[in-house]
Task: inverse folding
């Protein structure tokens, strides 16, 4: 049997789940959210959209295939979705201390330790999920036995986008079409997807005024936390909407584009995080299984007259994307770049790049 | 601008562009056989439910009378007829359906549908194929077309050469390089396929494959690659989802039906998972499936390289498993999609609010384990390979792999307690056993681990992914830790045991028994007592399991689902128990196996229906993914979990039920009766004590003596001297039943001293602990079955049926007719009287079955079971009185009336015939004996015995021979018995070939025949040559006795008939009945009547 320290997961509502620590032995607080994906823990943990959050995997067996190498080529991680782990803590039911995969170089536990991230296993993740579903995402903490009780903390009060966005302009590729990417916490697979399509990518910090740059198309990335804290980006977008250059947004990008178009966003009770979210292209019979990770959503009823919903969630009817009625602007609440998750909607990148003249 | 962003929206296609059919024909899969079993009862039942919901009139053709789908109210019209083009066309001609569903009856239905399409029958009668178009089916079935089709979209397949003769096969193999695999095209579940390491093996296997199919495929072997499957769904609007993926524990090389399978995949990264998912969707779109299909991959363990193995354009065993594993009703949805619905039109049937267009997220792991019964077959090849031999399977659910696996190993019901803590297997060469897997593989791994083999060594020998081995090693380590904590006395208290260790053990699926064994409690007490000690101990420590729901969305949405399992990896129950004592628990029948199959599923489902109708909460415990009883729609609560004493008690403690029904699930629940009773569980119906009085040979025998009922003489003997003394008294032949636990060997009839000694040496050494039961064997006696329901010892309803074969053929293999056609009135009268006496003496309340021997009017009782028997669905459906419904009412204490109808009122005959799967059991001797060998059955109804016999025999794969028949008709007595049939054949113009003695006998009696030679004889023509050249259309080979020479010669002929797919009959009475039927009846004159037309 493994020698591990006792730990517990405490939730804002008073619930306590006892388990054992398997990551970096420390106590940590954050917003507790769950993800229902059955694969892709290295991708999820490095997804900047999880910044500030403690992530519960509903799939109970985690760590099976270890973790691939931390390899960065031309400022893009080969196997991760960013340079580091962004979640604050990991909650699993059955951690696999041993792993097996040709592409793995270390165990999940070793990786967490290396990056100073807390992890707890041996807790009833299904019950935790039910609580989060019934009472909504809530603050919580992984508490190590013997350490001082750590205080709860609401990461949504902090501008998480500012925490994870790049601090300087980074240029990728030498493609024919010049795309500016507003980095709210971009996943590297978005960069990979665009670069595969003959694009030169200019990644700018979230609050950078890209209107001062020359570009052919504008992309607004995914990112963590509360979109209402990203006023600067919305202002810049509003200006861009006066032009005619194609705009494509993903996740946070969808929310910021919507805000620029006059709509309101609101916090979902417990968000959409998983690989099995069904969306429908509005007005058609075309449906897609999508990868999602968001806690906020666009209120379709508040969209301006020039806008319309493009995708709708088939489970709860929430907005999954918008488009401009006349101009080449659109965005998706889900993740067409997948990684992790289903790849059904990657064609949206083709659509975007084709729109760029 | 392209489609998705264009502002002129794609107009929604309307439902009206595809009119809803009013009448639809569904083809079933016929008898259960290896490779095609209960899963198709489940898929067909679901499809019929989906159609019914739309108000569509449904017609079902399925001769499998024991299924749920052929029960009243499931389809509007049911034909118990063979699923062959001939009969299906007749039904189409009569019923004129607008649509036909081909995807729900396995390969049988698919092949039949393709034949009807190709012959133009569907077009002629204007029958529309609903769902996947036939061309798409052909594209997946014909290997060459399939490869071409996938080439078009750059999807890699296994390099394969289609050949039509042995020479081309050799050439292709040489080109690809050995090892190679040989497959027969259009074959069920790998029939006639195999791996070859050299040309010699190739010739052998290819010849067999050619007997099943004119086209044989030679492929490069990818042994050691992972095997991964995806279940994919597509609607006619091109929307696709993958409902589930599954990973085989055993690498490629072992048929997926023979492998332990885990869902979802465990060792694939996100990139790998979605690469294969994306390919699956690309494939299903390109082929044009509408409904469900299964894509199987070989996947390189060292890179992301893959090959598509095959695509099944129909519901399959895997899809049934996927449905149960995820809660997503694939067959139901596929049927709706066939009617023209889009996935977006349908709701998730678990949450009822979210869309059916989604992919289930599991928050548990599922483990499927095959159940083999190879021990039942003399001479069978036990090595696992590319063709399927297992007869059933179980599915275990847990929140750790260890938990699911250990549950599963107990569920397969072969005396194993999990991965560890079992009786030690004797494996002479562990390395070899690891390298060449048999049905014992998983236990060989356990043995190797405990013997100190490293993971790498085991991986090298088995190629099983290290992750699985690591998890198995966890179990071994926990057992070792328990063993270090040997108890010093029985009264252990929480202070004596490490709580963490106990929790770990339980979270890894250890049973109380395994823990007791680990701690050494067996030194102090009985197994049963030790289990209770541990149970009590852990309860004191607060180590108790919880109930979790299967809700398809990993708790993301609230679900009112009643689909449940038990786990130790959790702290909270998903179900809020109200303690109203309104629950009635029905114990299911577990894995399908030889001797217990779909018939008990039918019984369980009927009991659930009656319970529900009478205002109780129906609760099922069962773990067989191939069944309808484990469809969560069938009951108010489904516990997909073990039927062990421990787990049943866990559930009883949660449910606090009104009572438990143990009599509709066959022997597994029956065996629990006494122990549940000791825990004061309310067993409904006949008391546990009575059950024990019938089960216990001594007690039962004493009771029969007391009430003056005769039985064959028997004795349990512990020494060879006693055996000889007993035989001296009763004389040969005798029925010998060795202790199964010790030897795993079958029962047998021995006719002389030599046979007896040989058999006993083979089977077991007779000893004090393991006595051998020997009974007098009565020759040429009729066997008669009494299936009945009694209330407080009085018979309410009964059915007496008669075996066509004489006693000596196991009742599960026998051909049975009901009502009896050739019993003396006095025999029937006596049987009724004795049955009444027994029912009264045991104070039976519920279903029961008694087997009798009848010679002249001399009646002896062979066996009595105070539970439903295998023949309950058959007699219930022929009699049109649901005996289980009656029995359940009795058990619920409801008033019941004696039905006004009796078997003497029937103007028609039902014949139940057995299905054998010898073609899948390489090397097994296809001969029938006192131990059961059949894997399934059919029941057909006719206006007379002959027509029912004929349709029943055709339903189990016999064909009316075209011309040439090979006869070897056994002993003198059997030869005489067969003489009339031989004359009939000759008169009908059949050409008879006969081996030595038979030929002489026929000639002497003036029946023209050609002599052929046994394999051991010189001369021409040789019987085997004639079989190999396909010159023979039917083989009647009746084994004379068990002498070595007879067995060898006969065996070779019988085995060749099976391997070359030539119909074989080994029983004189059955052969006569069949021959009489096809000689006196013209198949074209068989009445095409539905069940309800027999009045």
Result:
């Amino acid at each position: 049997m493994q020698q591990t320290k006792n730990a517990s997961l405490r939730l804002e509502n008073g619930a306590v789940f006892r388990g054992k620590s398997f990551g970096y032995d420390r106590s940590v607080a954050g917003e507790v959210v769950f993800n229902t994906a059955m694969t892709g823990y290295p991708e999820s943990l490095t997804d900047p959209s999880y910044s500030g959050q403690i992530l519960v995997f509903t799939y109970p067996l985690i760590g099976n295939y270890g973790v691939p190498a931390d390899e960065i080529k031309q400022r893009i991680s080969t196997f991760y979705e960013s340079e580091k782990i962004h979640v604050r803590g990991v909650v699993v039911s059955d951690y696999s201390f041993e792993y097996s995969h040709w592409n793995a170089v270390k165990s999940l536990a070793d990786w967490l330790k290396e990056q100073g991230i807390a992890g707890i296993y041996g807790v009833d993740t299904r019950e935790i999920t039910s609580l989060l579903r019934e009472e909504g995402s809530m603050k919580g903490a992984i508490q190590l036995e013997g350490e001082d009780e750590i205080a709860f903390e609401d990461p949504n009060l902090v501008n998480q986008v500012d925490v994870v966005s790049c601090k300087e302009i980074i240029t990728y590729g030498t493609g024919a079409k010049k795309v500016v990417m507003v980095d709210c916490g971009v996943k590297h697979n978005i960069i990979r997807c665009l670069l595969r399509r003959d694009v030169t990518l200019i990644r700018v910090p979230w609050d950078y005024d890209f209107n001062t740059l020359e570009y052919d198309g504008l992309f607004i990335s995914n990112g963590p936390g509360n979109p209402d804290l990203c006023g600067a980006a919305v202002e810049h977008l509003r200006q861009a909407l006066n032009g005619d250059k194609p705009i494509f947004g993903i996740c946070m990008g969808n929310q910021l584009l919507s805000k620029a178009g006059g709509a309101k966003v609101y916090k979902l009770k417990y968000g959409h995080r998983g690989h099995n979210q069904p969306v429908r292209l509005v007005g058609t019979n075309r449906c897609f299984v999508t990868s999602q990770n968001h806690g906020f959503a666009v209120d379709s009823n508040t969209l301006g007259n020039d806008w319309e919903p493009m995708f709708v969630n088939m489970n709860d009817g929430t907005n999954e994307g918008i488009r401009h009625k006349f101009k080449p602007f659109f965005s998706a609440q889900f993740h067409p770049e997948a990684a992790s998750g289903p790849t059904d909607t990657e064609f949206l990148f083709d659509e975007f790049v084709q729109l760029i003249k | 601008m392209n489609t998705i962003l264009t502002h002129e929206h794609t107009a929604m296609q309307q439902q009206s562009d595809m009119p809803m059919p009013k009448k639809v024909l569904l083809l079933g899969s016929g008898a259960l056989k290896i490779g095609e079993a209960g899963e198709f009862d489940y898929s067909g039942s679901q499809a019929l439910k989906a159609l019914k919901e739309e108000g569509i009139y449904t017609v079902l053709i399925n001769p499998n009378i024991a299924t749920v789908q052929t029960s009243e109210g499931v389809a509007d019209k049911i034909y118990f007829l063979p699923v062959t083009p001939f009969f299906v066309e007749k039904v189409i001609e009569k019923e004129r359906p607008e649509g036909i569903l081909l995807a729900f009856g396995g390969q049988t239905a698919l092949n039949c549908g393709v034949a009807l399409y190709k012959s133009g029958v569907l077009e002629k009668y204007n029958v529309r194929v609903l769902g996947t178009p036939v061309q798409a089916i052909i594209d997946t079935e014909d290997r060459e077309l399939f490869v071409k089709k996938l080439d078009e979209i750059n999807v890699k397949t296994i390099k394969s050469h289609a050949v039509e003769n042995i020479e081309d096969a050799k050439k292709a193999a040489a080109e690809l390089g050995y090892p190679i695999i040989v497959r027969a095209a259009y074959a069920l579940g790998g029939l006639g396929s195999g791996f070859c390491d050299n040309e010699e093996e190739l010739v052998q296997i290819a010849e067999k494959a050619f007997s099943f199919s004119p086209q044989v495929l030679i492929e490069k072997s990818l042994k050691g690659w992972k095997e991964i499957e995806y279940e994919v769904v597509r609607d006619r609007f091109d929307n696709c989802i993958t409902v589930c993926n599954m990973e085989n524990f055993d690498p490629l090389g072992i048929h997926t039906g023979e492998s332990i399978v885990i869902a979802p995949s465990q060792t694939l990264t996100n990139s790998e998972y979605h690469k294969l998912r994306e390919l699956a969707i690309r494939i299903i779109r390109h082929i044009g499936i509408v409904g469900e299909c299964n894509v199987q991959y070989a996947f390189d363990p060292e890179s992301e390289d893959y090959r598509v193995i095959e695509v099944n354009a129909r519901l399959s065993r895997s899809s049934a498993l996927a449905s149960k594993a995820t809660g997503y009703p694939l067959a139901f949805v596929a049927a709706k999609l066939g009617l023209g619905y889009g996935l977006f039109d349908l709701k998730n049937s678990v949450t009822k609010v979210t869309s059916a267009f989604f992919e289930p997220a599991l928050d548990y792991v599922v483990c499927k384990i095959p159940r083999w019964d190879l021990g039942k077959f003399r001479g069978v090849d036990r090595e696992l390979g590319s063709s399927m031999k297992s007869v059933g399977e179980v599915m275990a659910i847990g929140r750790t792999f260890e938990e699911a696996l250990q549950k599963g190993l107990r569920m397969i019901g072969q005396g194993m307690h999990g991965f560890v803590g079992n009786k030690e297997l004797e494996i002479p060469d562990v390395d070899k056993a690891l390298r060449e897997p048999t049905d014992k593989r998983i236990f060989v791994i356990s043995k190797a681990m405990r013997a100190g083999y490293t993971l790498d060594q085991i991986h090298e020998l088995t190629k099983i992914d290290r992750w699985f081995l690591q998890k198995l090693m966890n179990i071994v380590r926990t057992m070792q830790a328990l063993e270090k904590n040997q108890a010093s006395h029985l009264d252990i208290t929480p202070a004596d045991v490490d709580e963490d260790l106990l929790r770990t053990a339980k979270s890894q699926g250890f049973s109380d028994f395994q823990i007791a064994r680990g701690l050494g409690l067996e030194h102090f007490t009985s197994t049963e007592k030790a289990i209770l000690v541990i149970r009590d101990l852990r309860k004191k420590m607060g180590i108790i399991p919880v109930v979790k729901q299967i809700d398809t969305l990993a708790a993301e949405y609230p679900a009112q689902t009643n689909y449940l399992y038990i786990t130790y990896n959790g702290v909270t129950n998903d179900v809020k128990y109200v303690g109203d004592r309104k629950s009635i628990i029905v114990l299911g029948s577990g894995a399908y196996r030889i001797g217990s199959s779909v018939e008990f599923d039918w019984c369980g489902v009927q009991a659930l229906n009656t319970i529900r109708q009478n205002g109780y909460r129906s609760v099922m415990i069962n773990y067989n993914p191939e069944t309808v009883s484990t469809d969560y729609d069938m009951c108010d609560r489904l516990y997909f979990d073990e039927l062990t004493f421990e787990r049943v008690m866990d559930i009883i403690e949660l449910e606090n039920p009104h009572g438990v029904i143990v009599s509709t699930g066959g022997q597994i629940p029956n065996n629990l009766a006494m122990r549940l009773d000791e825990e004061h569980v309310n067993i409904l119906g006949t008391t546990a004590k009575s059950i024990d009085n019938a089960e216990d040979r001594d007690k039962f025998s004493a009771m029969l003596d007391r009430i003056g009922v005769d039985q064959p003489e028997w004795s349990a003997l512990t020494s060879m001297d006693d055996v000889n003394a007993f035989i001296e008294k009763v004389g040969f032949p005798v029925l010998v039943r060795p202790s199964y636990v010790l030897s795993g060997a079958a029962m047998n009839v021995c006719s002389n001293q030599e046979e007896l000694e040989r058999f006993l040496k083979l089977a077991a050494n007779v000893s004090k602990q393991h006595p051998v039961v020997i009974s007098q064997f009565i020759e040429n006696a009729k066997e008669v079955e009494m299936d009945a329901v009694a209330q407080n010892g009085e018979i309410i309803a009964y059915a007496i049926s008669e075996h066509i074969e004489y006693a000596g053929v196991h009742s599960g293999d026998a051909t049975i007719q009901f009502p009896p056609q050739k019993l003396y009135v006095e025999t029937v009268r006596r049987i009724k009287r004795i049955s009444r006496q027994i029912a009264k003496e045991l104070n039976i309340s519920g279903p029961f079955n008694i087997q009798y021997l009848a010679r002249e009017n001399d009646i002896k009782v062979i066996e009595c079971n105070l539970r439903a028997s295998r023949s309950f669905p058959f007699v219930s459906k022929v009699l049109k009185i649901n005996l289980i419904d009656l029995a359940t009412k009795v058990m619920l204490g409801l008033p019941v009336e004696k039905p006004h109808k009796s078997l003497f009122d029937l103007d028609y005959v039902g014949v139940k015939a057995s299905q054998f799967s010898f073609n899948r059991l390489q090397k097994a001797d296809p001969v029938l004996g006192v131990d059961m060998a059949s894997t399934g059955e059919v029941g057909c109804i006719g206006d007379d015995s002959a027509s029912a016999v004929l349709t029943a025999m055709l339903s189990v794969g016999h064909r009316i021979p075209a011309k040439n028949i090979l006869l070897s008709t056994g002993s003198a007595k059997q030869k005489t018995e067969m003489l009339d049939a031989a004359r009939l054949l000759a008169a009908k113009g059949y050409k008879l070939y006969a081996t030595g003695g038979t030929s002489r006998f026929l000639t002497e009696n003036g029946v023209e025949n050609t002599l052929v030679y046994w394999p051991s004889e010189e001369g021409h023509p040789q019987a085997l040559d004639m079989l190999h050249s396909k010159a023979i259309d039917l083989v009647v080979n009746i084994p004379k006795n068990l002498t070595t020479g007879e067995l060898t010669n006969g065996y070779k002929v019988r085995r060749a008939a099976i391997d070359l797919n030539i119909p074989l009959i080994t029983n004189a009475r059955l052969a006569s009945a069949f021959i009489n039927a096809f000689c006196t009846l013209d198949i074209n004159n068989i009445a095409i009547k539905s069940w309800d037309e027999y009045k």
